[in-house]
UniProtKB/TrEMBL annotation:
This is DNA repair protein RecN. Keywords: ATP-binding, Coiled coil, DNA damage, DNA repair, Nucleotide-binding. It comes from Algoriphagus marincola. Residues 2-506 form the RecF/RecN/SMC N-terminal domain. InterPro entries: DNA_recomb/repair_RecN, P-loop_NTPase, RecF/RecN/SMC_N. Pfam families: SMC_N. Belongs to the RecN family. Residues 165-232, 335-362 form a coiled coil. The gene is recN.
Amino acid sequence: MLKSLSISNYALIDDLKMQPGAGLNMITGETGAGKSIMLGAVGLLLGKRADTKVLLHEDKKCIVEGWFELGSYGLQGFFEENDLEYEEPCIIRREISPSGKSRSFVNDTPVLLDVLKSLGEKLMDVHSQHDTLLLGDGAYQLGLVDAYSQSNRELSAYQGAYHDFRKAKKHLDQLKKKAFELQKEADFNQFQLDELSALSLQEGEQTELESKQEILENAEEIKLKIQEASGLFADEQFGILQGMGQIQQNLQSLERLAHTFGSIRERFQSALIEVKDILATLEEEDGQIEVDFEKLEEIRERLSKIYQLQKKHGVLTVEELIEIEQKLADQVFEFQNLDESLEKAEKDFAEAEKAMQSFGEKLTKKRVSCFSDFEKSMKSLLQDLGMENAQINFQRQEISPSSTGLDQIEILFSANKGGTLQALKKVASGGEFSRLLFAIKYLMADKMALPTLIFDEIDAGISGEVALQMVRMMKDISANHQIICITHLPQVAAKGDMHYFVFKDNSASKTISKIKLLDEQERIQELAKMIAGAQPSENALQSARELLAN
């Protein structure tokens, strides 16, 4: 519900504020006084585009701000989805700067125009004579049937089943596509896997094989060099160990002569131990190294196969080849077991499709069950609104499953007795559309949380009893929903809970539009003027009093 509206620097409006009530609010005024301008400003709150042409004063920004009571609209999810703070009241503000830049805010948080438009549609519904094309839209008509038949539970159950159906179908399609791709590659993958598996590759073996190859390729020369070195160490006359033994004896003698040589002897003793250990290691290596041309050839052959596979797969290590082998094994396994997966996916899809169809049929049944009552109610209301010969019929056609069900709804209409029923968008005139939509909103008022309804001269072209019936219906709706109605008919204006008067003020250098909430005496005067003109007679004033009293 709109709690407060303020408009500044917009068209003919310098500074306008109004606080409509919760029920039926009437706005009257002379033609051109600024009523439609107000609707244009409200349109900015609903996400409509604007430029600097709307500025009354070109050096000041235009600001339109609305305070809304969110009540039972259930918009918490919308606020969470758009990262907005959910607050009561909700403040929507639109600013147009002199440079033409437009900014939108929800609770002081900047938002994109699309977000503002989406939120605005949930809070305000501006109904004008030219804004009725929506009624001819199939999706809108389907939504009306769901609201009237109270099929939210059935629709929710169907949509859950439809989601499962889409998910199962997507999974099945993906498996089929994968099966097709794997089928094309199956033989090649198996060949590559066999080629890799035949080598029984081990992590780290390439480095070990390359080291062994290096030793075997130089085995004879390595053994010769080891033996030469061993000879230099161990020769009985001129060997290093022989000489070091003599040095050791001399150092022992020096230590006996002076203790200070003890540390030198100890250091030399350590070097002697290390030299002996080196000799032992060389001899051990010499014993292990063999000149084995057959083993060398085996290593060369294995490394050659490894290098070929590395080049083929574009990698540098055995570890990478092992990883490729595992991936190929997974692909081959998947292909070999794909029939089982496909069978399960097809079973799941069939079950999901069956469940969706079942929930869809229940939803269809609930929808169709309301057609007769909906048609009768609409026909009765249209007769009350001056369309005595109106005929209306709801037609259902089965369609492929969609997120909204298995149904396509078409409302067929004829305004004339004996006329052929045709689709609304083909046969209804603007005035007929307007009354149709009004009747629908009247029926929907008890079945859903309607936004603030703004009727812009919806009573144009009607008068007398039809106008009274329309305003009585507005009064009924206003018991639970806020209505703002712009009207030129005194019998309509008199039924409002609150009455605002829009007028032009020419006292300044520029003509500006203003709005005023009328008290009882001011309402009588304004209604009398609507009945008899600028200088109402006593009879007109009395008629105005009677309109207010009834």
